[in-house]
Amino acid sequence: METKIPVKEIMTRDVITIQGDRDVQDASMKMVEKEVGSLVVVDKENKPIGIITERDLVRKVLSKGKSIGTRIKKVMTEPLVSVNKNEELNEAIRKMRDLNIKKLPVIESGKLEGIMTETDVLSISPEMNEILGEATTFTQNPNRTEDWETGICESCSSFSKNLQSVEGGVLLCEQCREETEVEGAEAQ
Protein backbone atom coordinates (compact mmCIF):
# COMPACT_ATOMS: atom_id res chain seq x y z
CA MET A 1 0.00 0.00 0.00
CA GLU A 2 1.45 3.34 -1.03
CA THR A 3 0.76 6.06 1.51
CA LYS A 4 0.23 9.54 0.10
CA ILE A 5 0.30 12.43 2.54
CA PRO A 6 -0.97 15.75 1.18
CA VAL A 7 0.66 18.93 2.44
CA LYS A 8 -2.67 20.10 3.92
CA GLU A 9 -2.47 17.33 6.53
CA ILE A 10 0.68 18.70 8.18
CA MET A 11 0.75 22.41 7.31
CA THR A 12 0.39 25.13 9.91
CA ARG A 13 -2.87 26.91 9.19
CA ASP A 14 -2.34 30.09 11.19
CA VAL A 15 0.16 32.00 9.06
CA ILE A 16 1.57 35.28 10.31
CA THR A 17 1.63 37.89 7.54
CA ILE A 18 2.81 41.46 7.09
CA GLN A 19 2.24 44.08 4.40
CA GLY A 20 5.17 44.74 2.07
CA ASP A 21 5.06 48.50 2.59
CA ARG A 22 5.87 48.14 6.31
CA ASP A 23 9.50 48.47 7.42
CA VAL A 24 11.95 45.79 8.50
CA GLN A 25 11.79 46.92 12.12
CA ASP A 26 8.05 46.16 12.11
CA ALA A 27 8.84 42.75 10.62
CA SER A 28 11.47 41.91 13.22
CA MET A 29 9.23 43.09 16.08
CA LYS A 30 6.34 40.96 14.77
CA MET A 31 8.63 37.91 14.46
CA VAL A 32 9.73 38.35 18.07
CA GLU A 33 6.17 38.95 19.30
CA LYS A 34 4.74 35.92 17.46
CA GLU A 35 7.85 33.77 18.05
CA VAL A 36 8.28 32.91 14.37
CA GLY A 37 11.27 32.97 12.04
CA SER A 38 9.48 34.33 8.99
CA LEU A 39 6.49 36.30 7.80
CA VAL A 40 4.61 35.88 4.55
CA VAL A 41 4.52 39.27 2.85
CA VAL A 42 1.16 40.30 1.41
CA ASP A 43 -0.02 43.17 -0.77
CA LYS A 44 -2.90 45.54 0.00
CA GLU A 45 -5.40 42.92 -1.23
CA ASN A 46 -3.86 40.38 1.19
CA LYS A 47 -2.38 38.30 -1.65
CA PRO A 48 0.97 36.66 -0.85
CA ILE A 49 3.84 38.29 -2.76
CA GLY A 50 6.97 37.18 -0.91
CA ILE A 51 8.46 36.07 2.38
CA ILE A 52 10.81 37.73 4.83
CA THR A 53 12.92 35.54 7.07
CA GLU A 54 15.42 36.07 9.87
CA ARG A 55 18.07 35.14 7.30
CA ASP A 56 16.84 37.94 5.00
CA LEU A 57 17.09 40.44 7.85
CA VAL A 58 20.69 39.42 8.60
CA ARG A 59 21.91 39.08 5.00
CA LYS A 60 20.00 41.87 3.27
CA VAL A 61 19.64 44.48 6.02
CA LEU A 62 22.09 44.16 8.92
CA SER A 63 25.15 42.98 6.96
CA LYS A 64 24.57 45.73 4.36
CA GLY A 65 24.14 48.48 6.95
CA LYS A 66 20.61 49.29 5.76
CA SER A 67 18.22 51.33 7.88
CA ILE A 68 15.60 49.68 10.08
CA GLY A 69 13.17 51.86 8.13
CA THR A 70 13.85 49.91 4.91
CA ARG A 71 10.59 48.70 3.35
CA ILE A 72 10.03 44.96 3.54
CA LYS A 73 9.26 44.70 -0.18
CA LYS A 74 12.81 45.95 -0.91
CA VAL A 75 14.46 43.02 0.93
CA MET A 76 11.89 40.20 0.94
CA THR A 77 12.54 36.97 -0.93
CA GLU A 78 10.61 36.86 -4.17
CA PRO A 79 9.15 35.34 -6.21
CA LEU A 80 7.39 33.39 -3.50
CA VAL A 81 8.07 29.66 -3.77
CA SER A 82 4.93 27.81 -2.72
CA VAL A 83 2.97 24.57 -2.97
CA ASN A 84 -0.71 23.79 -3.18
CA LYS A 85 -2.46 22.02 -0.33
CA ASN A 86 -3.02 18.77 -2.23
CA GLU A 87 0.59 18.40 -3.33
CA GLU A 88 2.19 15.26 -1.94
CA LEU A 89 4.40 15.82 1.07
CA ASN A 90 7.41 14.06 -0.45
CA GLU A 91 7.33 16.44 -3.45
CA ALA A 92 7.10 19.48 -1.16
CA ILE A 93 10.02 18.21 0.94
CA ARG A 94 12.06 17.67 -2.22
CA LYS A 95 11.31 21.27 -3.27
CA MET A 96 12.42 22.57 0.13
CA ARG A 97 15.63 20.55 -0.05
CA ASP A 98 16.47 21.46 -3.65
CA LEU A 99 15.87 25.19 -3.09
CA ASN A 100 17.39 25.22 0.42
CA ILE A 101 14.32 26.76 2.04
CA LYS A 102 12.86 26.02 5.46
CA LYS A 103 9.35 27.39 5.01
CA LEU A 104 6.97 26.78 2.15
CA PRO A 105 3.72 28.78 1.94
CA VAL A 106 0.66 26.80 0.88
CA ILE A 107 -1.36 28.75 -1.68
CA GLU A 108 -4.62 27.71 -3.31
CA SER A 109 -6.20 29.89 -6.03
CA GLY A 110 -4.03 32.86 -5.00
CA LYS A 111 -5.13 32.58 -1.36
CA LEU A 112 -2.74 31.79 1.50
CA GLU A 113 -4.03 28.58 3.13
CA GLY A 114 -1.10 27.73 5.40
CA ILE A 115 2.63 27.24 5.62
CA MET A 116 4.70 24.07 5.76
CA THR A 117 7.85 24.31 7.84
CA GLU A 118 10.72 21.99 8.65
CA THR A 119 9.18 21.69 12.12
CA ASP A 120 5.88 20.48 10.61
CA VAL A 121 7.75 17.82 8.63
CA LEU A 122 9.81 16.70 11.61
CA SER A 123 6.74 16.54 13.86
CA ILE A 124 5.22 13.73 11.81
CA SER A 125 8.41 11.70 11.41
CA PRO A 126 8.52 10.17 14.93
CA GLU A 127 4.80 9.41 14.78
CA MET A 128 4.85 7.88 11.31
CA ASN A 129 5.99 4.37 12.27
CA GLU A 130 3.53 4.31 15.15
CA ILE A 131 0.69 5.59 12.96
CA LEU A 132 1.38 3.12 10.17
CA GLY A 133 1.62 0.31 12.72
CA GLU A 134 -1.69 1.34 14.27
CA ALA A 135 -3.30 1.63 10.84
CA THR A 136 -2.18 -1.89 9.94
CA THR A 137 -3.47 -3.31 13.22
CA PHE A 138 -6.64 -1.26 12.93
CA THR A 139 -7.33 -2.49 9.39
CA GLN A 140 -6.85 -6.08 10.51
CA ASN A 141 -9.47 -5.70 13.28
CA PRO A 142 -12.95 -5.67 11.72
CA ASN A 143 -14.69 -5.32 15.11
CA ARG A 144 -13.27 -1.90 15.87
CA THR A 145 -15.37 0.51 17.85
CA GLU A 146 -12.83 3.23 18.53
CA ASP A 147 -12.83 6.46 16.54
CA TRP A 148 -9.43 7.40 15.15
CA GLU A 149 -8.54 10.90 14.08
CA THR A 150 -5.11 10.16 12.61
CA GLY A 151 -4.17 7.36 10.25
CA ILE A 152 -4.66 6.09 6.72
CA CYS A 153 -7.88 6.73 4.78
CA GLU A 154 -9.43 3.40 3.80
CA SER A 155 -10.61 4.78 0.46
CA CYS A 156 -7.66 6.71 -1.02
CA SER A 157 -4.79 5.41 1.20
CA SER A 158 -3.77 8.97 2.11
CA PHE A 159 -2.47 9.87 5.55
CA SER A 160 -4.92 12.11 7.39
CA LYS A 161 -5.13 13.82 10.75
CA ASN A 162 -8.90 14.09 10.28
CA LEU A 163 -10.28 10.58 9.82
CA GLN A 164 -13.88 9.86 10.70
CA SER A 165 -15.85 6.67 10.69
CA VAL A 166 -18.75 6.70 8.24
CA GLU A 167 -21.60 4.27 7.61
CA GLY A 168 -20.24 0.74 7.63
CA GLY A 169 -17.37 1.66 9.97
CA VAL A 170 -15.07 2.78 7.16
CA LEU A 171 -12.50 5.44 8.10
CA LEU A 172 -12.38 8.27 5.56
CA CYS A 173 -10.40 11.48 5.22
CA GLU A 174 -12.24 14.77 4.79
CA GLN A 175 -11.97 14.76 0.98
CA CYS A 176 -13.33 11.20 0.63
CA ARG A 177 -16.17 11.97 3.07
CA GLU A 178 -17.11 15.02 0.97
CA GLU A 179 -17.02 12.93 -2.22
CA THR A 180 -19.18 10.27 -0.57
CA GLU A 181 -21.70 12.91 0.56
CA VAL A 182 -21.87 14.39 -2.96
CA GLU A 183 -22.34 10.93 -4.52
CA GLY A 184 -25.07 10.15 -1.96
CA ALA A 185 -26.86 13.44 -2.68
CA GLU A 186 -26.68 12.86 -6.44
CA ALA A 187 -28.14 9.35 -6.06
CA GLN A 188 -31.25 10.73 -4.34
Automatic annotation (TrEMBL):
<keyword id="KW-0129">CBS domain</keyword>
<dbReference type="InterPro" id="IPR046342">
    <property type="entry name" value="CBS_dom_sf"/>
</dbReference>
<dbReference type="InterPro" id="IPR051257">
    <property type="entry name" value="Diverse_CBS-Domain"/>
</dbReference>
<feature type="binding site">
    <location>
        <position position="176"/>
    </location>
    <ligand>
        <name>Fe cation</name>
    </ligand>
</feature>
<feature type="binding site">
    <location>
        <position position="156"/>
    </location>
    <ligand>
        <name>Zn(2+)</name>
    </ligand>
</feature>
<dbReference type="GO" id="GO:0046872">
    <property type="term" value="F:metal ion binding"/>
</dbReference>
<dbReference type="InterPro" id="IPR044065">
    <property type="entry name" value="ACP_MB"/>
</dbReference>
<dbReference type="Pfam" id="PF00571">
    <property type="entry name" value="CBS"/>
</dbReference>
<feature type="domain" description="ACP-type MB">
    <location>
        <begin position="148"/>
        <end position="183"/>
    </location>
</feature>
<dbReference type="InterPro" id="IPR000644">
    <property type="entry name" value="CBS_dom"/>
</dbReference>
<keyword id="KW-0862">Zinc</keyword>
<feature type="domain" description="CBS">
    <location>
        <begin position="11"/>
        <end position="68"/>
    </location>
</feature>
<feature type="binding site">
    <location>
        <position position="176"/>
    </location>
    <ligand>
        <name>Zn(2+)</name>
    </ligand>
</feature>
<keyword id="KW-0479">Metal-binding</keyword>
<feature type="domain" description="CBS">
    <location>
        <begin position="76"/>
        <end position="131"/>
    </location>
</feature>
<keyword id="KW-0408">Iron</keyword>
<feature type="binding site">
    <location>
        <position position="156"/>
    </location>
    <ligand>
        <name>Fe cation</name>
    </ligand>
</feature>
<protein>
    <submittedName>
        <fullName>CBS domain containing protein</fullName>
    </submittedName>
</protein>
<feature type="binding site">
    <location>
        <position position="173"/>
    </location>
    <ligand>
        <name>Zn(2+)</name>
    </ligand>
</feature>
<feature type="binding site">
    <location>
        <position position="153"/>
    </location>
    <ligand>
        <name>Zn(2+)</name>
    </ligand>
</feature>
<feature type="binding site">
    <location>
        <position position="153"/>
    </location>
    <ligand>
        <name>Fe cation</name>
    </ligand>
</feature>
<feature type="binding site">
    <location>
        <position position="173"/>
    </location>
    <ligand>
        <name>Fe cation</name>
    </ligand>
</feature>
